[in-house]
Amino acid sequence: QRRMFTNVEMDNSTGVAVIKMNSPPVNSLSLEFLTEFAINMEKLEMDRGCRGVILTSSVPRIFSAGLDITEMYGKTPEHCGAFWRAVQEMWLKLYGSSMITIAAINGSSPAGGCLMAISCDYRIMTDYPKYSIGLNETKLGIVAPFWFKDTMINCIGNRATEHSLQLGLQYNPPEALKVGLVDQLETEDKLMTTASSVMSQWLAIPDHARQITKSMMRKPIIDQLLRQREADVQNFVKFITKDSIQKSLQMYMEMLKQKKG
Ligand SMILES: CC/C=C\C/C=C\CCCC/C=C/C(=O)SCCNC(=O)CCNC(=O)[C@H](O)C(C)(C)COP(=O)(O)OP(=O)(O)OC[C@H]1O[C@@H](n2cnc3c(N)ncnc32)[C@H](O)[C@@H]1OP(=O)(O)O
Q1: By the number of CB atoms within 10 A of the CB, which of 30, 106, 230, 255 ranks highest?
Q2: Per-state percent for the chain, helix, strand, coil, to nearest 5
Q3: CA 137 to centroid of ligand 1, rounded, Å
Q4: What percentage of residues in the chain have a pLDDT greater than 90?
Q5: Mutate to test the pocket of ligand 1, among 5, 21, 26, 255 (most ligand atoms within 8 A of CB)
Q6: In this predicted structure, what is the pLDDT of residue 211?
Q7: Which residue lies with its CA nearest to atom 50 of ligand 1?
Q8: Under DSSP, is residue 33 helix (H, G, I), strand (E, B) or coil?
Q9: Ligand 1 touching residue 25 (CB < 6 A)
Q10: Catalytic positions, written as ranges
Q11: CA pseudo-torsion sign 83, 257, 239, 142
Q12: TM spans, by residue (predicted)?
């Protein structure tokens, strides 16, 4: 039986779906997870009754740990290529969605987890000091590709992105609010109610006007990836299969395990 990585609950009375990521222990984004996520987004996009999506997590304390490192370590170039296509597809479906997308960030959200959040239209994060969010790729010895970087620039601006990406910064909730990485903080118990109430404000705007405006803002980056999608895959495969990069990933995974012990 196929495993489910996400639960989708559609409320037909409001036209809002809640996608809960549910892949313990850390909602890491594996090839299967990403494939299922993109299919779910596609189905909601095709559903004329669905106007908005709230993205959140069922896993305690974690929104998403980002890309599943085990999908990039010790794998064949073919596997790495298939994995990267799935990462691209997830981003294209989320960043390019015509629906209103709100991230209810109820836990830590490094790297690919942060990419998911900043690909949404609005972010509300639980105000808990131990949670963090950011594109920390350089800390793993890897490089966030241009479409991660440009999504971040569109969210927090050029200078803050440069600072944030070079240092691989992870922000706690008040810092994330200050830099503009999230739009609002909320307590754990009120997070979903607040997300629904923000959604109602966005739903009040006529869809066609909001959708054209959103597309105008995001299309240049999306088109740039679409134009060079296969080159981006080959670039990733070449980079990630290098011995030096594989070594960095191995050391990072060992560090994660040691931290636990
Ligand atoms: C020139 C450029 C050209 C092309 C581009 C090329 C390249 C590359 C771009 C790649 C972009 C990459 C994006 C990413 O998302 S990489 C992933 C980054 N993620 C992280 O750094 C997060 C790491 N994890 C953590 O910090 C913590 O786990 C977390 C999320 C804060 C939770 O902490 P905690 O609750 O204490 O849980 P544990 O750390 O004990 O973890 C439990 C368990 O999960 C394993 N794990 C954690 N994160 C991941 C992960 N991302 N992938 C796979 N597995 C993960 C961890 O090892 C533990 O495993 P165990 O077996 O010990 O139980």
Answers
A1: 106
A2: 55, 15, 30
A3: 10
A4: 97
A5: 26
A6: 98
A7: 68
A8: helix
A9: yes
A10: 67, 112, 136-137
A11: positive
A12: none
Residue found under tokens 């134009």 = 227
Segment 21-58, tens digit of pLDDT: 999 999 999 999 999 999 999 999 999 999 999 999 99
Nearest protein Cα to ligand 1, atom 59: 257
Model-level ipTM above the cut of 0.95 = yes
Q: What are the residues whose beta carbons fall under 8 Å from the beta carbon of 28, sequence distance 6 or more?
A: 64, 65, 66, 67, 68, 69, 70
Q: Which two tokens stand for residue 73?
A: 């370590």
pLDDT band of residue 100 (cuts 50, 70, 90) is: very high
- Taking residues 4-29, what's their average pLDDT? 97
Q: Give CA–CA dist 235/232, Å, rounded.
A: 5
pLDDT per position as a tens digit, 127-140: 999 999 999 999 98
**For residue 2, is pLDDT > 70?**
no
Dist CA 17 CA 55 (whole Å): 9
- CA 35, 30, 136, 134 torsion-angle sign: positive
Q: Bridge partners of 161?
A: none
Cα separations (Å) of 176 from 83, 171, 238, 254?
29, 5, 33, 28
Contact indicator for 165, 144 with CB cutoff of 8 Å: yes
